[in-house]
Amino acid sequence: MNKKGEVEYVVGWAHDHTELVKKEKDLIRINEELEELNNLKDKVFAEVSHDLKGPIGNLQVAMKIMLEMKSSLAEDEFDVFLENMGKSLTESLQNVDRIN
Questions:
Q1: Helix, strand, or coil here: 49?
Q2: Nearest-angstrom CA–CA distance, 30 and 81
Q3: Helix, strand or coil for residue 82?
Q4: Which residues neighbour 81 within 8 Å (Cβ) at sequence distance 6 or greater?
């Protein structure tokens, strides 16, 4: 202020936030994309897990049955059990290979 009490000049500064706002919007967009990808990953793993649990569970049950009934199974019945277990195992391994 001058001697008369009048404002003669004002000191200040300005800062351009344009780049900061752009980067913040980019981060928000990237975070949203990452959340979508994470949700997709969760869905894929849930499906893969489900697809693998069935055949593996079947193998487990078949093995228990074979062990419980091994003395009463005819050789051809035993062979059928083993053949079915082999097919189920092959299918499970192919499912795992498809993940890669």
A1: helix
A2: 52
A3: helix
A4: 62, 65, 66, 73
Q: Report the C-alpha gap between 90 and 96 in whole angstroms.
A: 10
Amino acid identity, position 11: V
Chain segment 22-68, per-residue pLDDT in tens? 999 999 999 999 999 999 999 988 888 887 788 788 888 888 887 88
Query: pLDDT band for position 81 (50/70/90)?
Result: confident
List the one residue out of 54, 63, 60 whose CA is nearest residue 91: 54
Residue with tokens 């981060």: 27
Would you say 85 and 59 are in contact if contact means Cβ atoms under 8 Å apart? yes
What 8-state DSSP symbol labels residue 4? T
Does the global pTM surpass 0.70? no
- For the chain, give the number of residues: 100
